[in-house]
Amino acid sequence: MSGAERVLDRIAALLAKAERTEHAAEAETYLAKAQALATQASVDLAVARARTARREAREQPTQRTITIGERAKRANKHLVTLFVTVGHCNGLQVDVAHNSTYVIAYGMPSDLDLSSALFGSLATQMTASANAWLAVGQWRDDTYISREGWRKPHTSQTARAAFYRGFIERIGRRLTEARDEVMAAAQAEVVEVAQDIAESGTTTGALVLRAKEAEVRSFYRSASSARGSWGGYSGNVTRHGGAASRAGRQAAANARLSSPRGIGQKGPGLAG
Q1: Which residue has the higher pLDDT, 63 or 175?
Q2: How many domains does the chain have?
Q3: Do the domain assignments include residue 267?
Q4: Which of 14, 67, 73, 264 has CB atoms 3.0–4.6 Å from 271's, for a disulfide?
């Protein structure tokens, strides 16, 4: 079993624990551990690559197409935003199709695997929790602030959009916090690397990881044919989405992730 496969197995175990627990605090802890593990794996592989180009652990940047959804589905832009959020926390560069039906992710194979696993679980959780909250019907008495600054009553469509935006915002903070904790630890740990990486012969794990991410960016510039930038969500719901936004953020904070079947497999509506 390769190192990347072992990491995926450990993340699968964390997701399984999150699925079984009845305690929101424990579920949040498991998600943080999963992201921390993904970041630490990225650090470890980057250090191995820096030591010697002949090591088996050395990876080369690559690209992968991930299908988000069918054409004209309203949820596509939210799912793309979720993937971009997860991907950026794990060192990926991402191009988005003009119709938001797929993305092209650029990065190291292990980072692509880990990001796809986290995204698959979170996308399932976000959709399921939104469906459950909308079914209760609280959005019928709720309002939101439009881009023009008007307070408007929610429809089921705008309530879902507000829920998704709140969920993704909170998930982004959680993943960033988990990543920053590992990066801080890596910054303090001095490791030996090859002379062609650092003239002194030593550098920190965090510095090596940044060098790896710079290599990914260089690969992205040479491989990507994207023109312009993705506009993201363009609907009328702002961050002030009322109870729907709060419910989305709370669902992301609790984050009882779905089963780890998405690890290395295709989930519903998601294809690699």
Answers
A1: 63
A2: 1
A3: no
A4: 67
Residue 272 lies in a domain: no
Beta-sheet pairing, 62-67 with 102-107: antiparallel
Q: Which domain holds residue 156?
A: 3-262
Q: What is the pTM of this model?
A: 0.71
**Residue 252 lies inside a defined structural domain of this protein:** yes
In terms of Cβ atoms closer than 10 Å to its own Cβ (0-12, 13-18, 19+), residue 244 is: buried
Contact by Cβ (8 Å): 65, 85: no
Q: How far is CA 58 from the centre of its chain?
A: 23
Q: Quick one: how far is CA 222 from the chain centroid?
A: 24
Asked whether the beta carbons of 56 and 108 are under 8 A apart, the reply is no
134-185 pLDDT, tens digit each: 999 988 988 888 888 889 999 999 999 999 999 999 999 988 888 888 777 7
**Which whole-number Å values give the CA distances from 258 to 124, 141, 175, 219, in the listed order?**
7, 30, 17, 33
Question: Tens digit of pLDDT for each residue in 70-100?
Answer: 887 888 999 999 999 999 988 899 999 988 9
Is 138 among the domain residues?
A: yes
Can you spell out the DSSP letters for 13-77?
HHHHHHHH---HHHHHHHHHHHHHHHHHHHHHHHHHHHH-TTSTT----EEEEEE---TT-TTHH
One-letter identity of residue 252 = A
Residues contacting 12, CB < 8 A, separation 6+: 117, 260, 263
